[in-house]
Amino acid sequence: MNSNDLNVKKQIMFIKDEDYYFLTYNILIILDYFKCYSVENLFKDYRKLPYLIEFLSSDKSVEIYEKVFETEGKTISIFDYEHLLKVYTKSKFMQGQIKRLLFSLDQNQLISIVKDTRFGSVSLLIKDKEKVKEILNDEMFRNEYQRIEKIKRAYSRLRSIKYTTFIEKVFKANGVGKWDD
């Protein structure tokens, strides 16, 4: 099955933005990619997840993310700004769903939610590595792993930065979300 066939199959299987399966596999892919299997390697501040999931959802979003870091300090185009605004807005709406889903994944022993007193945030790790590897051991998720690789390449400290730093670097530095909070 080629890449386009897989994308069509995923579009039929999952209703992006509303489907807990879509959100679940993206959360697990992010945690697995960053090898968040222990307290020493936590995914710091879960609040970054909705934004990362939205960036992971399309090649265009990844391209915009990469541009944000390539053009750091410069103005992005109006089209890129509009796309970045769309990512930001959709991610804000997704936050409640992500919280509920994380509690469910914790109750089902797939992940652990860890209060990180050092950073004053809530961090995550995969509790059942074998089960998660089994779930994600499918050609269907190859594109998501490739996208997260590009995202990490654009900004390598992604796993460990605080939520506020992430929002500042990706969105507020480009005029998106400046009036929030």
Q: Could you please describe the fold and organization of this structure?
A:
This protein has helices spanning 3-13, 20-33, 49-56, 59-70, 78-107, 129-136, 142-154, 163-170; strands at residues 111-116, 121-126. The chain is mostly helical and 181 residues long. The protein has one domain. It has a two-stranded antiparallel sheet with strand order 1-2. Helix 2 crosses helix 6, helix 2 (20-33) packs across helix 7 (142-154) and helix 4 (59-70) packs parallel to helix 7. The N and C termini lie far apart (45 Å). Mean pLDDT is 87; it is low at 8-12.
Compose a concise summary of this entry:
The chain has 181 residues and is mainly alpha-helical. The protein contains eight helices and two strands. The longest helix has 30 residues, at 78-107.
Give the key terms:
181 residues; mainly alpha; two-stranded antiparallel sheet; 2 strands; 57% helix; globular
